[in-house]
Records
---
Amino acid sequence: MMTWLALLVLVVTDCTSTILMVKGVRDIGKFTIFPIHKLPKLIHRVVTDLRVVLGIFNMTIAFFMLIFLLLYADISFVWPATALTEPINMLSSKFILKERVTRLRWFSMVFIFLGVTLISIN
Amino acid sequence: MLIKSDQILLKNLILIGALVLLQVLGNISLSRGMRQIGKAITVTPDKLILLGMQTLSNPWVLLGIGIQIICLVLYMSAISRLDLSYVLPIMSSSYVLTTLFAWIILEEKIAPNRWIGSLLVSIGVMLAGLTSIKQSSFRGSSDDVNL
């Protein structure tokens, strides 16, 4: 029960984080490390963007949930189980981020989802 | 000699490849660290503090966290230049690789259904990559691809 509850929190916070960060980072512009002298300005823009900050906060919760889950189960179960975020993220890409998702991509997601489900079966 | 579009494609592939590999190594490192700490059957508030201290002082966990921070930077770079619906399917190969590395490095016992699942995930990832690799590589085809 504790495992699935932690997994639920992980999935929700991870999906929220993805959407917030994508929206924030895209408004900031391309995230590049080089040239180095432009990095401080870029970091400042990142840490002052509320969506990115909330995204990182959600990602942190998801990360600690992952660590917590590893107390209860093997990584070969835990990591594939986190793929429950994938179908939700794909829907978010389509309907929130308005990205074009081809039929074949949807089809590939079915494969990934089925595969992840099988991996997750104990 | 590579033309510009091929260079962009190559850089994007290297970026996502590095991201996936580091993600897997980070997972393995975290798992090894948490194994050393042991299984938590019940979690009470006082045990939680002790658990947190043990976790944050374990070298494998710290290494895993360090790797995950690098992954975060690479991830932000990837999603800022590529479609999320392209990045995420490729990143899902980390599920297969994590299972493989868990079997090899951590010597976890992997049931047949997990291996079959890994194969299905691989096929799905390959399909996603084949259909969208060109399209996504040219998104916003500016000169600013200098990670």
---
Amino acid sequence: MGNFGYLMDGFATVLTAHHLMIMMIGVMLGILVGVLPGLGAPNGVSLLLPLTFTMEPISAIILLSCMYWGALFGGSTTSILFNIPGEPSSVATTFDGYPMAKNGQATRALTLAFMSAGIGALAGVVMITLLSGWVARFALQFSSPEFFAVYFLAFGSFIGMSDNAPAKTLVTMMLGFAFATVGMDTISGSLRLTFGIPDLIKGISFLVAVMGLFGIGELLLTTEEGLRFDGIKARVRPIDVLKTLKEMPRYGWAILRSTLIGIWMGITPAGPTAASFMSYGLARRFAKDKSKFGKGDPRGIVSPETADHSAGTSALLPMLALGVPGSATAAVMMGGLMIWGLTPGPMLFIDRPDFVWGLIASMYLGNVVAVLLVLATVPLYASILRVPFSIVGPVIVAIIFSGAYQVANSTFDMWLVLGFGILGYLFKTLDYPIAPLVLAMVLGDKAEDAFRQSMLMSNGSLTIFWSNPLVSGIMALGVLMLIWPLIAKAAGLRGLRRHTAGHQAKV
Amino acid sequence: MLKQITLALLAITTVPAFAFEPTRPVEFVVTSGPGGGTDNFARTVQSIIAKHKLIDAPVVVTNKGGGSGAEGFVYAAGYKGDPYKLTFGTNNEYLLPSVAAVPYAPEDLTPVATLALDEFLIWVNGQSKFGDVKSFVEAAKAKPKAIQFGGSQSKDTDQILVSTIAEVTGAEFRYIPFKGGGEAGVQLAGGHIDANVNNPNENRGQWQAGMVKPLCVFRPDRFPQSAPVHDGKGWHDIPTCAEAGLAIDSYRMPRTVWLPAGVEEDVVVFYRDVLKKVSETPEWADYVAKTSQTSQFMTGDEFTAYQAKDRETVLKVLKREGWLVK
């Protein structure tokens, strides 16, 4: 009950005209940086940070966190409209969001994404409100073996689902691991695969790879298909937003499952990217009719979006309670906390409850404000697709290249984007799946670090992954997910499989 | 009359007619990711410069923390003679080229100033049976490689310190590298590793809550008096490692600022003066106190001498461990 009282105090702090205005500004700025790929939430928040030095800490954190929510929504927008994920965690949204938009249902896709994102985020905040004390202690039980197990589970739930030839999946995944190893190795402190090129020291940015693979690759394909954009004829009616809202309850199960996955991955804290991939993988695994996945299945949008946002929100709890940033954006905000004179850590909840609960109250309101703002602008965004490709195409190219430059202010990255674009085009024409490559790139180096740290801890014995109930449980789940297709076969569920046999997923 | 002329001549010689003054935005290159220690350092300096209007031109901060900071140094080294790139780092500027094949040399950057020294401590879990550093070292000696030390990065300041402790005491430790001090702090609070050598700021929150506790600090003298942090104990109550029986007098990390090589002398003078003014503001004193660092402004020969000595000490460790890059 104490928490509830604090929360009410928090609402009292936040519900002022001044703070509501800050929220609106934050969300709008966030959408702006989210829509521009490469700028993204961490950069946007760092740009805004100097402005907050003179503000009250609570106003400052409201501004920054609302910008974060806005950026997350903005990131989904470009995933759906242009196949360019603004954030690593919105990659999984492109798998079905982009095809749906291409089929002329951009309004529906955007509305589904925003609504489920809003639901996910609110579920995350409710969890924070109810479980703040317990979660902080739980997150402490995670060490390197547990982290490896969680990544293993994410790989496991995603790999088995691919319909492509297993050899092709393996090839692209290995390529992804190779790209992830470029740069400085945490464990040995040496440079790997840099070939003496100074620009490779920082590693290959995941965002650069994704902008090339998805964005440029898609443009090359569209050009080859004869310079037309299928969405042009689609009518954009505001009423479609309401129609789609009515459709939402149908995905109740998907939303519930994804929320749970998201919260779990957020507090463990494996992060939103792993959560969205896993949630997409599971949605597909447990769907009775898989034929529409990869072609614009609504569940393929709802699941990753819900998980992404519930994980993103839940991840703020470990940051506040333990002082460990769960994401790059959280790290910038933590730097801000210190400059404002607050020490993130277990004592923050006790020393400055006004600040913590004000922030939590602002998460409730900020997300509601964000959902309303983005829903109101859906028709506007969806209309972009009606603009002829001869105009949109070059604009996208310009945005991608300037975005790639902004990731690290490096001109070398613009060449990389081009390289990845050609790779993406080849993959698509030769029917190689891109998703495993992306997954390996995002989680590969983290999984590698966790694995090698575990090996150092155990003196090279693999039994460390079965050394306590927590890690064994997660590993067992991961193995189960990995071999699920075999189990399904053995159990005589072939009828179901045959249903999908003729279909090749093009994710 | 003659006196006046002499004065006028003196004035001309001491105040050069073309003293450097930035006319376009100055870039602060941060050699760590957002939220890291170097990032906080640079952004604090930026906020003080903005508040007191110490530089008329705008200041832009860019993070180039890839490759343990090598990304930022390589980038700055590429702007030879450019007075608009101010790079923020630690002693990694002159240590990195010794342990990894990075494409820059320490001489590719001109030292401007050191503003502070960050401290190192030995921390153990709050429930740990070790109450002082002696029993900790004894336990490590009794069971070689049983004690796990976590730290930030590999072959970097943390691991070099752990190696020095091992060398001085004859004990053997296992070192587990993490991405940053924050991660090593949480692993210690969770009891997954036995100790770490985090900077005060990286473990302060956990110490407040009693999840970790300090054994000793690698300072020549104790911390100055300050408010209690946990259980009635404050920073001043932590013994120095030397007085607690671990014979390492001092191990610290400088917070440094650099310019590309080949800049004019008046450029160095300009930034040195700005940074000197920064280090005299109450906001700077506040930052240093809050992060339990020691404010120490060093420049010119003093900085060069410090750097030479630091490098010599560290190179010995690198040579012994065989970490020197060929």
---
Amino acid sequence: MDSVINAQQIVNGLQLGSIYALIALGYTMVYGIVRLINFAHGDFYMVGAFAAYGAFYLFNAYLGSGGVLAFVVLILAMAASAAIAQLANRLAYKPLRYKPRLSSLVTAIGVSMFLEYLFSALPVIGPNPRGFPEIIPKRMFTVGSAEISNYVVIDITVAAVLMVGLTLLIRRTALGKAMRAVSQDKDAARLMGIDVEKIISATFLIGGAFAGAAGLLAGMTYPRIQPYMGILPGIKAFIAAVLGGIGNIPGAVLGAYIMGLAETFATSYNSLLGEGIAFVILILVLLVRPTGLLGEKTADKI
Amino acid sequence: MKRFASIMVPAVIVGGIFLSCSGGPPVFKLGGVGPVTGEAATFGASTKQGIEMAVAEWNVQGGVLGKQIRLAFADDKGDPAEGATVYTKLIQQDGVSAIVGTVMSKVSLAGAPICQSYKIPMISTASTNPKVTDVGDYIFRACFIDPFQGTVGAAFSYSDLQAKTAAVIFDVGNDYPKGLAEFFRTKFTELGGSVVAFEGHATGTTDFKAQLTKMVRAEPDVIYCSDYYNDVALIARQARELGFKGPMVGGDGWDSPELTKIGGAAVEGTFFTNHYSKDDIRPIVKDFVAKFKAKYNADPDALAALAYDATYIMLNAVKTAGTADGAAIKNALASTDLEVVSGRVKFDANRNPVKSAVIIEIKGGEQVYRTTVYP
């Protein structure tokens, strides 16, 4: 068993899990408030990665490499993804807000494919994979029998901070209270004087910004980006969100780490079956707890 | 005047359409296919350049069968489904008499049955998986095949690098890396070495750490990676992060400038088997490198050389056949004996050329010629 589960594999699983967590947070938040499974979320993440790439080469000459540059790149990546998310909300999702839920779902898939093909067609981006710059120099540490890079620490820290921040925002602020109200009953919320569209916009902006941060971190951790990079992590983050209980913020993070670890252990047990085993585990969990690990009982169907 | 214009304008338009359909001198239509976009994009770009350069040279010499050669080139995007579409399009819409391409084995395997059923001779430039030419007697290739490449990689690892243990990683969703990994394992074991880990990964993944952790813990003398450059670069980086300091060896899928761009220092001191080296001293190679540099202002990689060779082999067969008929060209191809950039080409009974391989080392971010291995 030592060859399958050891310190190094746990580190590997946690790193993969934190990337999934960052995507899953935005996924679950949008679902929790708008009740929309936003399949384009993985593509907002891709947009963030490319925005970070562009921002790095624009500002590299002026800011040098290091903390200030990393901060500027992070802000721009988050802003770009937030802008795309808001644009998708306004143009594609808003007109279908009070139409059958299946229409928005299909539209979300459409937005996803549109972004992928648009980015492949843009001459400055194009369909070919490209390397991602090392925005913060990578350092390796040996802890016990495991090799840990500073990126693992950064990924896990950012995922944890954003999770706590988001939970506080939703539980403690007026905006959060309004978000919870909208998620429970849009009409009642409107009667209470809440501008529902404004709250939904805020939700997409925050969710998009999270995807942007995830895109930057994924680009740094696995330095190869291309327009289709969001598909697989997007699907896995969605499953992580379902596993944790969709709509539940800590659940998304828990689900993401379980996904990351399960995938890593399964792959190290048998790389040829690999991810197949990880998905079997997920199906088993959902058989026992259909609403996810931390999900509340609800009559809603996905 | 107005009346004159009202008659002349439609007349010119109709005439123009007529001319563009059937007018002009007769041409020989040649199809070309390569992955200009997608995961093997640099392969496609080089392939297109190689084919275009060869066609241009033949046209300067008067073309073939007394006609100029018109090239119809299509992008297969490195995708088998797209490949099947473009092969069909070249044959049905463009009406080509022969096809040069494509690069990736999985895509050639999608195109070959189409060429076979329409009896259009096809020569793959760089698909090294043995199954490609097994499709039928109209399918040839300009490159050596993976059993030979895997053998060369294993022998080089065992003898030159003195590796006694090896760990292997490859893409399970792709015919080329999968086949090559297996041929390497067979030969390396046969030589007396042991393969301590044999790990697959999913197509399109960016995280290889679970497999690599297992591999590095088995303490292999060498890691053999049969993937394409894009994955190799990430695998090399992650293997180094996990503390692997030994050499890595791979196949011709590594041959791209992107390997060092994405891989950086992690790919230093790695080796791969290839079809040709630009540092070869044979006159035909020197001549090719000089002409390619003059035309494209870059060094030709093996993909460009193979595409150039494949085009020459195909056009030479058309010339020998003396007709654009598929069956005649196919027979002429089978009896090819031609000196080209990547060696002397003669086809065996399975329409595979028997020729040499070179070992390339990555040194200081550059590809450096190490040695030539004969079959």
